[in-house]
Design goal:
The longest helix has 51 residues. It contains 15 helices and twelve strands. The chain is of the alpha+beta class. Helix 8 packs parallel to helix 9 and helix 9 runs antiparallel to helix 10. The chain is rod-shaped and about 155 Å long. The strands form two sheets. Strands 6, 7, 8, 9, 10, 11 and 12 form a seven-stranded mixed β-sheet that branches. The protein has a five-stranded antiparallel β-sheet with strand order 2-1-5-4-3, sandwiched between helices. It has three domains: 175 residues, PAS domain (Beta-Lactamase), CATH 3.30.450.20; 102 residues, Signal transduction histidine kinase, dimerisation/phosphotransfer (DHp) domain (Helix Hairpins), CATH 1.10.287.130; 148 residues, Heat Shock Protein 90, CATH 3.30.565.
Length: 478
């Protein structure tokens, strides 16, 4: 992932650098061309100044004077421009008389001089004689050319024109060298930018690399890994915090799973060991024949306990299926509470527990899955019987509040330790840790919680001074 991001970033840097370099190069090129054309126009203006101050009836009369200082100056300036640009220079008055200093240009590049287009020159002279300063680029001929021209005046009248034409390559020469230096500079800038971005991205990607390594560690089954939550920007810090929260929860679930497996293994092993021991004792004759009925009863009880544990596991598995849904009907929950007491009457009488039903109304009709809710009532009542001491008291209550039925099961037992109250509905929390005595795997209350969640209702442990009290809610039938 880091390599892909770096490749994209470097590609963007190179593309941006190339575009900016191209723009800068074109700007520099145009400026240099303009500067050289400005120089040619400046030279043409100097020549025009001299030509405009010539005395005599015509230009030709003056320039034919070999001793004329003006002629000498004109020739020197023309030779200078010829040497520098290989240019064709012409000075013409309004009568069409032309002084053309083209010897140097012709000697250096006769093909260029032969390729001059007379029509273009004539048209350019007409524009200049009209009082315009021209600056043109022409693509006609074998090679492009640049043309500049300025008028010269005597008083307020245009009396002639100065015309200079040169190859475009003479104006544009030297740009290739500048382009080379520019490209080298751009390459160095791109390289330095790439290194800087690489170091920056690498530092920014460090938290993601830690997350990747931590994720691989989790995939191998180690949920204790944590990442630094203080590195990176706000989004990465939040992601790291969420990742650490996830690993802590996974570690908690894994710890609970191991405890659950250990507890279930113990609960399964205990009755199986008892049944096998009694069976082997009777088969070996260790248990006398007259005592065998007693041990057969113990074996039956252990089998019943084993069957109950398996039923709880299967029930929890069915409730956790994605397609599990309650079969809602309308029934009287008070009647269900009375039936639950009757079904457990033998256990209640064996421990001499006093049971009372305190109903707000004689009938309390609700909408729910009656079989599932009966399972909740039986689980809560069984827990109350299990942890209520002999001669204790259990109370079943029902009432309504804001269109919701509230059912409460209270006992006068030992209660639940404060440190265990938040864990009591954890499916991996064992019952012998929630109460000071008793057996179980902690599945009963987990099953109750899942059933209430399926109904969109709640079940909770109430604050009591003595014993334990559980209350769950149901939709009241109106």
């Amino acid at each position: 992932m880091f390599a892909r991001i770096m490749a994209v970033v470097l590609a963007v840097i190179l593309l941006t650098t190339a575009c900016l370099t191209g723009i800068w190069w074109l700007t520099l090129r145009n400026r240099q061309i303009d500067a050289r054309l400005d120089y040619l126009i400046s030279e043409a203006e100097d020549i025009a100044y001299l030509a405009g101050n010539l005395s005599g009836d015509s230009l030709m009369e003056t320039i034919q004077d070999r001793d004329s200082a003006t002629r000498a100056n004109l020739n020197r300036m023309a030779e200078k421009v010829n040497r520098e640009f290989g240019a064709y220079i012409a000075v013409m008055d309004r009568n069409g008389n032309v002084m053309t200093n083209s010897r140097t240009a012709y000697n250096e590049d006769p093909e260029f001089m032969d390729s001059l287009n007379g029509e273009e020159i004539t048209e350019a002279f007409q524009q200049i004689l009209a009082g315009k300063t021209i600056r043109l680029r022409s693509e006609s001929g074998e090679a492009p050319t640049f043309t500049v021209g300025v008028p010269f005046m005597m008083g307020n009248t245009v009396t002639g024109a100065v015309f200079i034409r040169t190859k475009a390559q003479r104006i544009e020469s030297g740009l290739a060298e500048i382009l080379g230096r520019t490209a080298l500079f751009a390459a160095v800038v791109a390289a330095l930018s790439g290194v800087a971005v690489f170091l920056f991205v690498r530092r920014r990607m460090k938290p993601l690399k830690q997350l990747e390594t931590a994720a691989a560690t989790i995939a191998e089954g180690d949920f204790s890994v944590q990442v630094d939550e203080k590195q990176g920007d706000r989004e990465l810090r939040e992601l790291s915090g969420a990742f650490n929260t996830m690993t802590r929860k996974l570690q908690s679930v894994e710890t609970g799973r191991r405890e659950f497996v250990a507890n279930v293994s113990h609960e399964l092993r205990s009755p199986i060991t008892s049944i096998r021991g009694f069976a082997e004792g009777m088969a070996d004759g260790v248990i006398p024949g007259e005592e065998q009925p007693k041990y057969l009863r113990l074996m039956a009880d252990e089998s019943k306990r084993l069957s109950g544990l398996i039923d709880d596991l299967l029930a929890l598995s069915r409730l956790e299926r994605d397609d599990a849904a309650p079969e809602v009907t309308t029934f009287d929950v008070n009647e269900m509470l009375r039936r639950a007491v009757i079904r457990r009457m033998n256990d209640l009488e064996a421990k001499k527990i006093d049971v009372s039903c305190e109903f707000e109304e004689d009938s309390c009709r609700v909408r729910a899955d009656s079989d599932r809710i009966e399972q909740v009532v039986i689980n809560l009542l069984d827990n109350a019987i299990k942890f209520t001491p002999e001669g204790g008291r259990i109370t079943l209550e029902s009432g309504t509040k804001d269109g919701t039925a509230e059912i409460t099961v209270r006992d006068s037992g030992c209660g639940i330790a404060p440190e265990d109250r938040d864990k009591i509905f954890d499916r991996f929390f064992t019952a012998d840790r929630a109460h000071t005595a008793g057996k179980g795997t902690g599945l009963g209350l987990s099953i109750c919680k899942r059933i209430m969640e399926m109904h969109g209702q709640s079940i909770r442990l109430l604050d009591t001074e003595q014993g334990a009290a559980f209350r769950f809610t149901l939709e009241q039938d109106t």
